[in-house]
Design a protein that fits this description.
By secondary structure, the chain is mainly α. The protein has 11 helices and no strands.
């Protein structure tokens, strides 16, 4: 019996299909100015990666995007916990959270230019876009926690840390992990968009704008591919970090709950 193709074979086939479709579309258009092919894009990307300017711009934008992601996560967590246990707070926060979700990103970017320097614009916008997603994910995870497990922790009088690891984290982490992956991709998109409008010196957005002015479509595609690659790498690193954290934080502590129960008795 032949061996079944692994998951990587299927992914490679999908990538090859879309690269072929892209190449055929580029050949049909026939003008690199309008639609460069994958080979031209890869060559432009390789050329850009050989320069120090590429990595300086990447570091400039990545630090602000990831910083905004962390700030949005901290703010979302600080709001979600009281909202989960207090319906009044939850109702009060529903309006601004929905407003941030529904309003166009460009509106926030233009308004934010009145409040902060363009150098920090991507940090603010990334955090603002991450906040409602992470708030909603954490809130949903807390509200959907198994009531039987919560009651068991109360009856057995588990220590707070033991209850956190045995009840809350296993229930909340799947919701939070999904929200974090979604928020991270949105942070990259909104952060780069903020830089394209605000044009801070030294960011990826400035490079996008310069390529657009020069009608360098191949370079524009290359910068886009770079942002997609950075976003994918960050998401993969986040996935591994969350898996590692789940294994450590949710590990049972033998005897912790029983010791607490014994002291209570």
């Amino acid at each position: 019996m032949g061996r079944k193709p692994g998951p990587w074979a299927g992914r490679a086939a999908v990538v090859a299909f879309w690269l072929l479709a892209w190449q055929l579309a580029a050949l049909a258009v026939g003008q690199e100015l309008l639609l460069p092919g994958p080979a031209q894009t890869v060559w432009q990307l390789a050329r850009l990666m050989c320069s120090a300017d590429f990595w300086q711009r990447a570091a400039f934008t990545a630090l602000r995007v990831l910083g905004g992601f962390i700030l949005g996560g901290c703010a979302g967590s600080a709001l979600a916990v009281p909202a989960a246990f207090c319906p009044v707070v939850r109702r009060l926060l529903a309006v601004p959270v929905q407003l941030i979700k529904a309003a166009p990103v460009a509106s926030f970017i233009i308004l934010a230019l009145l409040w902060v320097r363009s150098r920090w614009l991507s940090l603010l916008i990334s955090g603002l876009m991450a906040l409602p997603i992470l708030y909603t994910a954490l809130l949903e995870g807390i509200l959907q926690a198994d009531g039987a497990l919560r009651e068991m922790a109360r009856v057995f009088r588990l220590a707070p840390m033991a209850a956190l690891r045995a009840v809350w984290l296993p229930e909340v982490l799947p919701y939070l992990a999904q929200g974090m992956r979604l928020a991270l991709g949105l942070c990259w998109k909104s952060g780069v968009a903020a830089e394209i409008i605000g044009l801070p010196r030294g960011g990826l957005g400035e490079a996008f704008y310069a390529a657009k002015l020069a009608l360098a479509t191949g370079e524009l595609f290359a910068w886009t591919a770079a942002v997609l690659a950075f976003s994918a790498l960050c998401e993969r690193a986040l996935t591994r970090l969350l898996a590692s954290a789940a294994g450590c934080l949710c590990a049972p502590q033998p005897g912790a709950g029983l010791q607490k129960r014994g002291r209570a008795v």
